[in-house]
User: Fold this.
Amino acid sequence: MAKLDIVTLPDPILRKISTSVERIDDEMRRLADDMLETMYDAPGVGLAAIQVGVPLRLVVVDVADAEEGPQPLVLFNPEIVRFGPETRLHEEGCLSIPDVRVDIERPSTLTLRYLDRDGKQREIDADGLLATAIQHEVNHLDGKLIIDFLSSLKRDIVVRKFKKLARTTTT
Ligand code: NI
Assistant:
C-alpha cells in the first residue's frame, strides 16, 4: 500500500464530476487500499477518489472509534437510494479543506446501494456519523464541498484564504 497526496482547495479538480467505475479490477482495489491508508494516516473518516486526483466514483469510509478497531468500507459507484425523514446536525471537516469546520444539517438515515470490492452489488442502511460521512463523500463525487453549505460571503472568505495560502507556499 502507498500513501497518496491529498488535493486541497483551491485545486479546481475538486469541482469535477466523477465518472462511474466500469470495471473493478486489481488496479481499482489497489487504489481503494491506498485511499484507506491515506485516510487513516490523515486521519479522517472518509475519502473520495477525487481527493487524491482520481475522478472516479469511489469512496472509502471508516467511522469506527479506536476501541471498535478498523471497519473499512469500500464503496464503488455509491448511490443513495432513500433518505429517512429525520435530520442530524454535525460539524463537518474535510481533508481537502484543512482547519475549516462547517455545521451541516443532513438526513440522519439513508439507504445506500454500491458495488463492493468484488463488484458485488450491496445495499446498506446507515445512520449517525456513517450517514453523515456517506453524504459528505457522495457530495465530493458531484464536485460539492462543505463550503457550499455556507453563505456566499463566508464561502468567499474561505476560498480567498486558501488561494492566498497556495500562493505563499509555492513561492
Ligand atoms: Ni471531504
